[in-house]
Amino acid sequence: MFRFLTRAVLLRVLGRRLVPFIVVFDVLRTLDRLRRGSQPVTRRVTGAEPRDVTPPDLP
What is the pLDDT of residues 9-31, one digit of tens each? Predict the structure, then answer.
C-alpha cells in the first residue's frame, strides 16, 4: 500500500518521463525478490562486509 502511494506521488510530481524507469526498477526488484525466495532483504548485512578491511596507514 505504501509503495503504491509512493509510486503515485512520484508519477504525479515527476511527470510521465520517468514512468519507464520506475516500471523497469519495479520489475527488477520483483524478479530479485522472486529469485531470493521472498527472503527478507539482507543488503545491509552483506554490504557491511567490506568494512572489515584494515584502514590505510595515516601519515
Answer: 777 777 667 677 777 888 888 88
In this prediction the pTM is 0.34
Angstrom distance (rounded) from CA 9 to CA 12:
5
- Show the cell assigned to 25: 526498477
Residue extents of the structural domains in the chain: 1-32
C-alpha cell at 51: 568494512
Nearest to 22 by CA among 42, 37, 3, 2: 3
CB crowding 12-39: b at 16 or more within 10 Å, else e = eeeeeeeeeeeeeeeeeeeeeeeeeeee
Residue with grid cell 519495479, as numbered in its chain: 26
Amino acid at 36: R
